[in-house]
Amino acid sequence: MSQNNTNEPGKAPELNTDEPVRVNHTARNIIIAVLVVLLVTAGVFFGFHQANKGNGGAAASAETKGTKDNPVKIGVVGATDPQWVEFKKQAEAKGVYVDIVDFQDYTSENPALDAGDLDMNEFQHLLYLANYNVQNNKNLQPLGGVAIYPLGVYSSFDKDGKPKYTDIKDLPAGSTVAIPNDETNQARAIGVLKAAGVVTLKGDWTAFTIPQDIDEAKSKVKVVPMKAEQIANTLKSGGDDLSAGVINNDYVADAGLDPTDAIYHDDAESEESRPYINIFAVRADDVDNAVYRKCVEIYQTKPVLDALQEESAGTAVFADKFSQTELAKYLTDIESDIRASGK
């Protein structure tokens, strides 16, 4: 440790070989300690502030979300559809600015939401979200319900081109009903027939129920899987092979049918419909975000739902009465079914 040079000018400094002088630095050390604490505290504060600033779901940015400079980014398929045009108009009228981000597929929206590139998305039903979470070990959550697009049961036609039946209760005992043979719609179609009371299952219905789960001895009708695109044409052929069939919405118009022609369809209140509730999804940390919840509330207003009904040609059954807690419970149940099924 060097000492202060106290020798006279021009003389070489003397080396001090004695024990170093123990100077009392208590006051200086206290000042240094206080400064260090202040600097560390400031660093933690500014580090926390910057971390929150960069996190889309954090408190610092939540205050400004929904402003013109920081709009809520919502991923959808079909950003120019009437409901989204009306939604954006209604949101801005209520002081919430949104950016409707258009996607061309159904595979990119959830990864974009999980990565923080989106604040919300609305393109999927609960079953699709559950599959994504389970397969990717994620925890995206529903924030609000939108609608269910019912799966209808349609009567076969006679040779004069008229429906043979006007109510599903009129189907003869032992007659045959066709259902789509693809995995997702097959399970849903069985659920529709169960809800209608014409088939009985050996156990509980799940989104993975198959024809072998039907108790034929206790069911009013028999079920036969067919290619979805073939069911409508078979019903209209005037033959006696089928008494009715479950037709996907995609094929109803193509077959020259109207959704109102269905002799039965599922509804938003039935247990079998729950996996097919279309929802707004957010990251788990954002389920209580007031701005995002307001977006859902705005979407669920009459002008927007009217536009949605127009886009769906009258087929949408609104699912706007479910709470976030209810939807989250349904999602958890579906995820459990997926794990139990080994899918």
Structure report:
This is ABC transporter substrate-binding protein. It is found in: Membrane. Keywords: Lipoprotein, Membrane, Palmitate, Signal, Transmembrane, Transmembrane helix. It comes from Bifidobacterium italicum. The structure is a single chain. This protein has 343 residues and is of the alpha/beta class. It has 2 domains: 65-149 and 277-341, D-Maltodextrin-Binding Protein, domain 2; 152-266, 3-Layer(aba) Sandwich (D-Maltodextrin-Binding Protein, domain 2). It has helices at residues 26-54, 59-62, 82-93, 109-115, 126-136, 183-196, 228-236, 249-252, 290-299, 302-311, 324-341; strands at 72-76, 98-102, 120-125, 141-145, 147-148, 152-155, 176-180, 222-226, 244-247, 264-265, 278-282, 317-318. The strands form 3 sheets. Strands 2-1-3-11-4 form a 5-stranded mixed β-sheet, sandwiched between helices. A 5-stranded mixed β-sheet has the order 8-7-9-6-10, sandwiched between helices. α3 links the parallel β1 (72-76) and β2 (98-102). The chain is globular. The N and C termini lie far apart (72 Å). Residues 1-62 have low confidence and may be disordered.
